[in-house]
Amino acid sequence: MDPTIPEAEAGAPGAVSATMAHDGLHLGALSLPEVVMQGIAHTAPATAVLLTLPFITSHAGLAAPLAYLIALLIVLMLGVGLTQLAKHMPSAGGYYTYVSRTLGPRAGFLTAWLFFLYTALSPAFSLAMMGWVLESALWAEYGVAFPWWLFLVCGAMFTWWTTYRRIEISAAALMVLGFLEMGIVVLLAGWGVIAPGPGGVTLVSFNPASAPSGNGLYLGIVFSLFALTGWEGVVPLAEESANPRQVVPRAIVATILIMGCYLVFTSWGIMIGWGTADLGALVASKELPPFVLARRFWGPGWVVILFALLNSMIAVAVACSLVSTRMWYAMARSGALPAALAAVHPRHKTPANAVFFQTLVTLVGGLGLGFWLGPDQAFYVMGTVLTLALAIIYSAGNLGVFLLYRRRGAEFRWVPHALFPLLSSGAVVWVAYKSIVPLPPRPLAYAPAICGGWLLAGVSVLLLSKGLRRERWLLAAGAAERETVESAPTH
Known about the structure:
Elements: H1 18-22, H2 32-43, H3 45-50, H4 53-60, H5 64-86, H6 95-102, H7 105-120, H8 122-142, H9 148-164, H10 167-194, H11 214-224, H12 244-274, H13 279-284, H14 289-298, H15 303-333, H16 352-373, H17 375-407, H18 414-436, H19 446-467, H20 479-484
Helix pairs in contact: 2-10, 2-12, 2-15, 4-11, 5-11, 5-12, 5-17, 5-18, 6-7, 6-17, 7-15, 7-17, 7-19, 8-9, 8-15, 8-16, 8-17, 9-15, 9-16, 10-12, 10-15, 14-15, 15-16, 16-17, 17-18, 17-19
């Protein structure tokens, strides 16, 4: 046991014993490629480039691929920090466990509380958004009415079935979905290089001088950072991974490198295919530029790009659901949530009650946000909300890296344990700041209030627990995880 980690109270209500934990999730079921694909799917590769490229280009211009490349280097610093935690604490609790055991249980609870805005709600607004895209495309192209909420319901049911069954089924689904969406987008980008638009094939995109201005390149980098968001999704599968102390850190770095290289190449290829001499039209296009480009290349076959987007959102719903259900399972196992959420299906070895709860959140959240703000606006509002939430979560994890290794004395290294956490925390906090200052128009202006109100509610829960002298459940944070992963089998 790590001497730098404080003990939890043995009698905490709802805490699950180490023996029970060993009878829980399917330990050691996943290999490195499957864990990496979880991280990639959680990043939503097709969505990450197809929906963000016009916006990044509006700032960085021809240097948009360079903006993605520099963002990759910054995110690698974040990833290195997380690997330092993962190799000592491979747990289904992820950031909840890391922050609980380095900054304290109250900080860990607030981290998990903020994660609800991220992983738990992401399937809701992502599926609603793709339902809206599908509805719009089918009506415009074929005059077919297919309501967005029906896609949301179908996607939620598929996600439930996939995550309720054995983790191997979820992993297989993500492997198929991930390869399909990445393959289609890479094909489009490669086609663009072979059949370039006005301006031809050029590497000038990687010259900082090709940006409209220094500030434009800077803003492009700032907003490219969260196109890579999702790499941390590998962490909650630690207990279901073979040899997690090695697999999870490797999967974190591999996910970032693969996704970063993918974004750089596909953004460059799509811009080349569109025409580097006509980027103003790309930014001003009323239709998604990849749709326009696919029609030019493939005619009616353009629908494969629509398929890639739909596929991407279903995959991210599955990946996010795996993250949220494992986090709730870990919290319930340690006594921080009702013990019912720690229930594991005897045959499938999945947190069955947590999966049902996540499905309910997806349906209620997706339908509620969709009918309130509109499915498209809900996507952009919640995207800003999760940007704010992740800035806090990532910064808390980085501080945890510094504190953990300062306590460990001889293992402390200034670059990975101090410099990288400091620089990457500054970067993500600046992203959050630039996302809301100046305050965007409504409904995007609701984002700070939603995130701030949710954080205040979490603080209120802690204060109420303290006032009622019912904080013992907090002291259990991370207790079960310390013991479970030690016996995870390897392949």
